[in-house]
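dumping this here so i dont lose it
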């Protein structure tokens, strides 16, 4: 008879996301994951296959958590550039308040694994594509119209990823906000 899972998958994935954000894929051992998630090694392997399987599930979870608030923006009546500014300011606030200098799981996956792991590369690409489509849709509503809303969306993605990296090095609000203000002015 097959055993029934005795753990909350959402809690395990949340703990795995945090652990991978703090240490990266290579810097996270299976023992780190066992300690962070509170489940045994056997349960971890039974549920996710291996460390990479848990990492891929964590990437999916992170993407879902990250994408939901962005997709909700499409329903907002606020001016698109104000929403973009709110996204960037919210990101700066998160970076400054974090205190642990956790990396963005998508950015760290892109820099650490994309070149050598096709499954990770696919998930990072899907996440970036989703963000690009969402922002393009939002930026098509700018009045007067932007010359190239898709290029503008890609610019915002680059700013988001750059803020994540810069914030890990220098999590200072004023320093990061100068980039936010410049980015919003460049879009206007």
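and the seq i came up w/
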């Amino acid at each position: 008879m097959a055993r029934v899972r005795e753990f909350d998958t959402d809690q395990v994935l949340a703990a795995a996301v945090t652990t991978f954000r703090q240490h990266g894929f290579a810097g996270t051992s299976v023992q780190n994951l066992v300690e962070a998630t509170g489940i045994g090694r056997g349960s971890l392997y039974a549920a996710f296959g291996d460390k990479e399987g848990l990492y891929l599930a964590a990437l999916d979870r992170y993407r879902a958590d990250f994408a939901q608030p962005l997709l909700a923006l499409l329903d907002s009546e606020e001016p698109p550039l104000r929403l973009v500014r709110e996204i960037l300011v919210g990101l700066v606030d998160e970076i400054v308040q974090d205190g642990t200098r956790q990396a963005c799981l998508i950015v760290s996956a892109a820099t650490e694994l994309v070149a050598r792991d096709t499954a990770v590369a696919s998930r990072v690409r899907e996440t970036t594509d989703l963000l690009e489509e969402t922002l393009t849709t939002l930026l098509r509503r700018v009045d007067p119209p932007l010359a190239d809303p898709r290029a503008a969306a890609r610019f915002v993605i680059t700013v988001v990823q750059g803020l994540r990296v810069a914030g890990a090095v220098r999590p200072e609000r004023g320093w990061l906000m100068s980039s936010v203000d410049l980015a919003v002015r460049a879009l206007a």
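The chain has a mean pLDDT of 92.
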